[in-house]
Design a protein that fits this description.
By secondary structure, this protein is mostly beta strands. It contains four helices and 48 strands. It has four domains: about 230 residues, Immunoglobulin-like (Sandwich); about 250 residues, no CATH class; about 100 residues; about 180 residues, no CATH class.
Length: about 900
């Protein structure tokens, strides 16, 4: 395995949309210490308010002075900025008004790039407001010189040990920009309904303003914050002068309607494939401010037809493919309803008590029939709500409940049509709470989830009737939050009929049937399964160039989260160590530089060492603004508990891997990049390599095009094919595989205005695998690699061409002992979305969407670029055209 416990770079991820890797949240030792708190005193305006046109010429702005004194944070910490920046703040009973003047001695070089919301590039200003004044949470508003806005919520003080930002937050606010001979200006109107604050006679809010000068990749801040600071929000300046404010109760109701037309190839005799379909549906989304601290989002009959398709993959492993969530209802606020068991970016980092892709999933039962089947594309979400927020006492709350409907598939066989249940009605519930103390230096929290299914239909008893999980997390930091200790403890329980729990015991997460795992045992009579997991960690996250983390994480054999969460594998524990050294001030040829070291070892719950490894990796930005990175990874000999899919552990040779990436100047209109990673196991067991160039073109301020091809090869002598019985023994069948994959990701963004954009996403994907040297495992733990398997000779195995079936005659008596299908494959897929989005008024949008899918299979296994590409686009497409209209009523 390869593990990189890399830490997010909080100083840049905080409120800047520049490249996240340029610096860490650290300060050069000997650099200026944290500056005294700055204070800006605002004034109330009534009845006249500024016109939000970006020109900053309304007389009302004269009520308050300009505030400047910005200090450079990147690349030279503590120096004067290249260009001066000033701002003003006003307010009334409804909103906060902010004016920013970004002076520029070269106004013709101001970079004004049009893009869709939250995709800002170019010259920018950002305002962050800690209206709760909890020193942990900030509402962040960004605009670039073209008027494109972005917004996010910063949580947990921006600490690098947590998921510190939520880019999915889309409040309703107004902004405009203008360019003149002195530079450029921005005016913001931020309604108080979009912020959270308590009711007090006098308010004090945390406040920060950042300016990004694109052509120099330079950032400067009003309140200086050392870049070795372990947090950010607690070091903000302060906004005074706010009095008599009452937190309004936000109510937003957004009904929508969707018209959809589908076209695809008609299939003769199939009543479900007539070649076209049309339907019209509607629903409603809403947001209600329950209190000044808590907001409830709800949806009834949601539609996600405008969401980008998942990338194509060919998964030859025992593990489930993890897909990112893209549906807006589940994306927004996910930082609160989250319980990641371990951080970093290795195999364990995706384990989480909550994985929203479980809700609305593809039905889990497929009818076995020789006829035609009309399956639902997804489980229908009848309704869902989220209650999220943070109280003035420092208590964060996240509650989610969703109900999915009972789904049926239609089956046509022998002239008759019948309905077959394929997914039961299910309720998903989660509760997350977290209390912070001493301005976030200590946090204590917990989470619980519950899944309950109505299993009244025959054929669905293989599913869990109920699944529960819970977790407790504690984090304490000290020495100005530079050092921390973290503990997470989790537990799970699944309940169901014996066949459901048996299926769980035999699944790839557990493999209780492993014959060499004496510490677990399959029990066909069980009606429940329980387990535990957790992570304990100690680290240094600020206060200098050097940072480190040491910890241990574990998952017991019976631990299971996959009804509502995500768990890759049980029966495993690991200790790990990470250390990173950061230099963020320019030196020699570098603008910034970092290097990381990792080490890890793993055991199962029988105390058997099953893997060891380590790596060194680094990243740097050069003074010409090019960036490069790479790493070298080594893995010791290992015991794989999953390679034989429930069989005994397989001894795996040691290996090594290397990876690299290079990107040219990100400020340029044309940017090139290239990446590559390769891995090989010694003794010739396997070797794979993936690489690809990238091209990003910005021919005009409104148009962006990116092309990212990827080519990969996979050569392995031991690729699992299947398990067969021969007498009373199991035969674990493998083959040598030669696999080639080619993919191209295309993205085109054209923005006519900041509120009107067209986006295209397309991905042609072809992968072919040829198997040879079929073999069976004979001694999975043999020291000698060749003694672990037996290769079938020509007198033992034969292919029946017409049926595509291999038969194996082990004893040479002329009678097949078992058989398996030809595993060769050619997988071809094309997925594309073209989306026009018009936010015709804040919070209300019109979507016009065209999507296309093409999927096909062959079984010869030969990769031929021209043939496969012709074959892919020769497939009949499945086209979907939809129009979605929504309107936001603010009550």
């Amino acid at each position: 395995m390869r593990l990189q416990i890399s830490r997010p770079l909080a100083a840049i991820a905080l409120i800047s949309l520049v490249s996240a890797g340029t610096a860490s949240a650290g300060q050069t030792e000997g650099a200026p210490p944290a500056a005294p708190k700055k204070v800006y005193t605002t004034a109330r305006v009534n009845p006249h308010v500024p016109a939000i046109d970006g020109k900053v010429d309304d007389e009302v702005w004269a009520k308050v002075p300009w505030e400047g004194g910005f200090i450079q944070s990147q690349p030279y910490e503590g120096r004067e900025p290249t260009e001066k920046t000033e701002f003003k703040v006003l307010y009334d009973d409804k909103a906060v008004y902010i004016a920013v003047r970004a002076y520029d001695s070269e106004p013709k070089t101001i970079e004004r790039r049009l893009a869709r919301r939250d995709d800002c590039e170019g010259d920018m200003v950002t305002v962050a407001i800690d209206s709760l004044f909890d020193h942990l949470t900030a509402f962040v508003f960004t605009v670039n010189a073209a008027g494109v806005k972005a917004d996010q919520v910063l949580v947990n003080d921006g600490q690098s040990t947590s998921n510190e930002e939520d880019m999915s937050w889309d409040p309703i606010w107004d902004v405009a920009t203008a360019v003149d001979e002195q530079g450029w200006t921005a005016e913001m109107e931020i309604p108080l309904s979009q912020l959270r604050f308590g009711t007090k006679p006098e308010q004090v809010w945390g406040f920060q303003v950042r300016r990004t000068l694109f052509r120099k990749d330079e950032s400067s801040d009003w309140q200086f914050i050392p870049r070795n600071a372990s947090g950010l929000v607690h070091l903000f300046g302060e906004l005074h002068g706010l009095s008599g404010l009452t937190a309004p109760h936000q109510i937003e109701i957004m009904p929508y309607t969707v018209g959809r037309i589908q076209s695809y190839r008609a299939v003769a005799g199939n009543p479900f494939a007539k070649g076209s379909e049309q339907n019209l549906q509607g629903g409603v989304d809403g947001k209600v401010g329950v209190t000044s601290d808590l907001t409830m989002n709800f949806t009834v009959n949601p539609d996600f037809g405008q969401v980008e398709a998942d990338p194509s993959v060919v998964n030859l492993t025992a593990f489930e493919t993890y897909y990112e969530e893209k549906r807006p209802f589940f994306v927004e606020g996910r930082n609160i309803i989250n319980f990641q068991i371990m951080g970093g970016d290795g195999d364990f980092s995706q384990d989480n008590l909550f994985y929203s892709r479980r809700i609305g999933r593809y039905p889990q039962y497929y009818p076995e029939t020789g006829g035609f089947v009309d399956m639902p594309e997804a489980t229908h979400i009848l309704g869902a709500f989220k209650l999220t927020g943070k109280t003035r006492s420092g208590l964060s709350v996240g509650v989610l409940n969703s109900v999915t409907g009972r789904e049926r598939a239609s089956v046509f066989e022998k002239g008759l049509t019948s309905d077959v249940p394929v997914e039961p009605m299910t309720n998903y519930f989660s509760l997350r709470v977290q209390q912070d103390y001493n301005k976030g230096a200590t946090t204590i929290g917990g989470m619980m989830t519950a899944v309950n299914r109505s299993l009244k239909d025959d054929g669905l008893s293989f599913l869990h009737r109920a699944a529960y999980s819970g977790g407790l997390d504690v984090m304490h930091s000290w020495k100005n939050k530079n050092y921390y200790f973290s503990l997470k403890l989790v537990a799970s329980r699944v309940e169901g009929a014996p066949d459901a729990i048996l299926r769980t015991q035999l699944s790839s997460v557990h493999y209780y049937q492993r014959p060499d795992a004496g510490h677990v045992e399959v029990d066909p009579a069980r009606t429940s399964l329980s387990g535990t997991g957790g992570t304990v960690e100690f680290g240094k996250q600020g206060g200098g160039h050097l940072m480190f983390v040491a910890g241990a994480t574990w998952r017991s054999p019976g631990f299971d989260l996959n009804d509502m969460g995500y768990l890759r594998q049980g029966d495993v524990g690991m200790q790990y160590f990470w250390a990173g050294y950061r230099i963020w001030e320019p030196f020699g040829p570098f603008r910034s530089f970092n290097i990381n070291f990792n080490q890890w070892s793993g055991w199962n719950f029988a105390g058997v060492n099953i893997f060891n490894g380590g790596n060194v990796n680094g990243w740097a930005q050069l003074k010409n603004y090019w960036s490069l990175g790479g790493g070298y990874n080594v893995q010791g000999a290992a015991l794989s508990q999953t390679s034989l899919r429930g069989g005994p552990s397989l001894r795996v040779p040691p290996g090594r891997s290397i990876w690299f990436n290079l990107e040219t100047d990100m400020r340029k209109k044309v940017r090139f990049s290239v990446f590559g990673n390769g891995f090989e196991r010694f003794e010739g067991e396997s070797k794979n390599w993936t690489w690809g160039p990238g091209l990003n073109i910005v021919p005009s301020a409104a148009l962006q095009l990116s092309l990212s091809p990827q080519y990969s090869t996979n050569r392995s002598r031991l690729q699992y094919i299947g398990t067969r019985s021969s007498g009373d023994q199991s035969r674990y069948l493998f083959g040598s595989i030669d696999q080639t994959t080619l993919a191209l990701t295309i993205r085109l963004n054209y923005s006519l205005t900041p509120d009107l954009s067209v986006q295209f996403y397309g991905m042609p994907f072809v992968s072919a695998g040829t198997y040879r040297e079929f073999k069976r495992i004979t001694d999975s733990r043999a020291r000698d690699y060749g003694a672990r398997y037996h290769i079938f000779g020509p007198d033992e195995i034969a292919l029946d061409g017409p049926t595509g079936t291999y038969t194996v005659d082990e004893n040479g008596d002329g009678a097949p002992d078992y058989s398996f299908g030809n595993p060769n494959f050619n997988f071809r897929q094309f997925r594309a979305n073209l989306v026009l989005r018009w936010e015709y008024t804040p919070g209300s949008a019109l979507y016009v969407v065209w999507s296309q899918g093409r999927t096909g299979y062959l079984s010869d296994g030969a990769f031929d670029f021209g043939r496969d590409l012709d074959g892919l686009f020769g497939l009949h497409p499945h086209n979907v055209f939809l129009v979605k209209f929504s309107y936001c009523f603010q009550l």
